[in-house]
DNA sequence: GCTTATTTGTGAAATAATTTTCAATAAAAA
DNA sequence: TTTTTATTGAAAATTATTTCACAAATAAGC
């Protein structure tokens, strides 16, 4: 399953490259250099070449990279050639915005099921996604083979809900709550902490002025 | 302004520590060890001690850290002892969710103005925040001395809107669009790319199984 | 076909971040 | 008071990531 373990920092940049390659493809460009890519994605060109090189010699010297073959390669690597279903738990303020946003437009991920405790939401459809009561969480996760959950519940229930999701077989969590949830080693959590991002931004403005 | 330049990785963790210190404070705990903190925030205890040590000797050997004085210290460092105003541009799907979410509850940041091109939104109030037309962007940013912008507009206008905001004196941008915007060196961009996060999560599940 | 201009891929160096280790110190227990 | 226990702070080691710099390869121009 793992071809060769690439650095995590590289892995996080792959979707950025993938996205821009799609844009190039759509505008019928068929070659691109690391320098050109660098400007678009704001990553140093040497870093890009290094990143690509983990996967072998994908480019041609004096020419650059072939957009289509690179795109095909990354599509494979990122598993974007087949659809991945995700579940969303907590159809509130933020949850609704995410449901409404069609991830599928930009990637091969779609939210195929959502869950909430509110009885009035259960068994309705929001933005084309069926909402189930929490009592059905486990069953639906298992039936639909869902391995990824987007967590947008209130902080105080985040750990419980996480535990339930993991019991249902979930392996990855995109966590929007400020709580750092505890999970077993084989489950991956990606935290999106917006208050944090704002505070970090303020810190950098106050303390890292006038240079990069 | 800069006391001593601390590592960026450390800076990004400061709000996490700050948040948990507040929780400890609210539950009347008055001491905490790096080990205890480590479990709550999921950061190695040695990393925590190292992080803290950039600011001097804040703890006591054999005892730990005094919650209140640590909290006071971080409050100062993170500028959380005074209110920071931010603007939000693009009151759509995601923008509305963020407006509705009261950052001020968790931090001393609040959205004090929002902007949108839609004429029907101009001069209304959403979730207690006044919405202005884009023609007033520059004036309001300058009048209210807003240095931080939350960007939730469609991708294709993101660069233009960014340029306008910077012309209005903005120094930090929390960018929710997938576009990597171009900014001068003295402006900081923090990207929150949700499609990306999901794709990265999938990559890690597929390629980094069974270990950390 | 020869020359020049491009651009990759990668060793080596530089920089950044984490982790190990442990002496020093303070608190708590005896 | 003395001993034991807990815990920090920092030096050193390790690991991770980025960047430099350039030979090698190719394309494009002549
Ligand atoms: N809204 C934002 O812009 C924003 C920004 C940053 C962080 N967050 C975080 O995202 C999370 C959600 O925020 P929100 O503003 O959407 O809150 P919200 O209260 O609007 O939505 C939470 C939803 O979760 C549901 N819920 C409650 N308990 C549940 C349970 N046990 N199981 C399943 N569903 C349950 C509620 O019924 C509600 O629909 C919070 O943790 C918040 O801190 C939100
Ligand atoms: N909604 C999500 O959950 C989500 C998730 C990931 C990324 N995003 C990104 O966030 C951005 C906004 O997404 P959304 O779903 O809220 O879109 P949206 O279309 O619902 O909202 C965009 C808003 O921006 C306004 N706008 C358009 N042009 C403008 C301009 N020139 N100046 C000011 N305002 C302008 C529109 O009137 C609209 O209200 C997009 O770039 C999207 O890719 C959204």
Automatic annotation (TrEMBL), chains A, B:
GO biological process: negative regulation of DNA-templated transcription; response to redox state
An example Gene Ontology molecular-function term: DNA-binding transcription factor activity
Keyword set, alphabetical order: Cytoplasm, DNA-binding, NAD, Repressor, Transcription, Transcription regulation
Protein residues bound to NAD(+): 90-95
Predominant cellular place of this UniProt entry's protein: cytoplasm
Location in or out of the cell: Cytoplasm
Isomerase keyword on record: no
A Pfam family annotated for this UniProt entry: Put_DNA-bind_N
A GO CC term attached to the entry: cytoplasm
DNA-binding region coordinates: 16-55
Positions of the CoA-binding domain: 79-180
SUPFAM superfamilies: NAD(P)-binding Rossmann-fold domains (SSF51735), Winged helix' DNA-binding domain (SSF46785)
Family from the record: Belongs to the transcriptional regulatory Rex family.
Assembly notes: Homodimer.
Function: Modulates transcription in response to changes in cellular NADH/NAD(+) redox state.
Protein name, UniProt field: Redox-sensing transcriptional repressor Rex
Lineage of the organism: Bacteria, Bacillati, Bacillota, Bacilli, Lactobacillales
Gene: rex
């Amino acid at each position: 399953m793992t071809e060769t373990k690439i650095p995590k920092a590289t892995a996080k940049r792959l979707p950025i490259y993938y996205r821009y390659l799609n844009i190039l493809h759509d505008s019928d460009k068929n070659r691109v250099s690391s320098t050109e890519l660098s400007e678009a994605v704001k990553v140093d060109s040497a870093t890009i070449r290094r990143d690509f090189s983990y996967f072998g010699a994908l480019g041609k010297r004096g020419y650059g990279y072939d957009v289509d073959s690179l795109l095909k390669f990354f599509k494979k690597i990122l598993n974007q050639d087949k659809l991945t279903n995700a579940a969303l738990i907590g159809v509130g303020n933020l949850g609704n915005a995410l449901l409404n946003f069609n991830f599928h437009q930009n990637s091969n991920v779609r939210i195929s099921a959502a869950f909430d405790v509110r009885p009035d939401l259960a068994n309705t459809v929001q933005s084309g996604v069926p909402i189930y009561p929490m009592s059905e969480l486990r069953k639906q996760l298992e039936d639909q083979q869902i391995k990824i959950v987007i967590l947008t519940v209130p902080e105080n229930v985040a750990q419980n809900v996480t535990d339930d999701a993991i019991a249902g077989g979930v392996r990855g969590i995109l966590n929007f709550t400020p709580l750092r949830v505890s999970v077993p080693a084989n489950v991956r959590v990606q935290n999106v902490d917006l208050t944090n991002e704002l505070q970090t931004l303020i810190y950098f403005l106050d303390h890292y002025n006038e240079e990069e």
